[in-house]
Amino acid sequence: KQELARRSLLEFVKYTKPDYLVNWHHEVICHELDAFVRGDTMRLILCMPPRHGKSELASRRLPAYILGKDPEAEIIATSYSADLAARMNRDVQRVIEDELYRAIFPDTTLWGANVRSNSAGSYLRNSDIFEIVGHRGVYRSAGVGGGITGMGAKYALIDDPIKNREDANSATIRQSIWDWYTSTLYTRLAPDGRVLVILTRWHE
Hints:
Layout: H1 2-7, H2 9-16, H3 24-38, E1 43-47, H4 54-69, E2 74-79, H5 82-97, H6 99-104, E3 129-131, E4 138-143, E5 153-159, H7 165-168, H8 171-185, E6 189-199
Parallel strand pairs: 1-6, 2-4, 2-5, 5-6
Antiparallel strand pairs: 3-4
């Protein structure tokens, strides 16, 4: 089971979260996300209604899975608010700290204390950013519109950039999100950078 969990996102989810109820659409999502991780798909948009498990797969389990397979990976994860992005950040850390995760990916570990300096061999770890001990891997979370200067990304994950239908109906808000994506997030992508958008389709 551990070997399967190293090679398949769906098997990883089932192994690290045994109570996760897998439906057919989760299998489809994981199949597409596996292609995204391999680099077969460089741009991917997942559209689903609220409460269908997309964030658990794409924003909590996927980043931990990526960093397990590639501890050198740089990930920028965003959402409509900095608070939500920070919550996702902490959730990803919890996945990585779980013993089930360590049984699959023992080389991917986090610094043991909540430090904000990477001097003297320590590693950044807080609700905005964390680094993988002994590797270059890093996960940075930010709200849409927030600053991510100085960061690069092999993986850019955008989960619910629009909060609700009211915001989706605002041309001003839609334009501001697009401007931030093109002027800020997109410019942080590495040459082989990949972009994943996970959202409820509120507007055409």
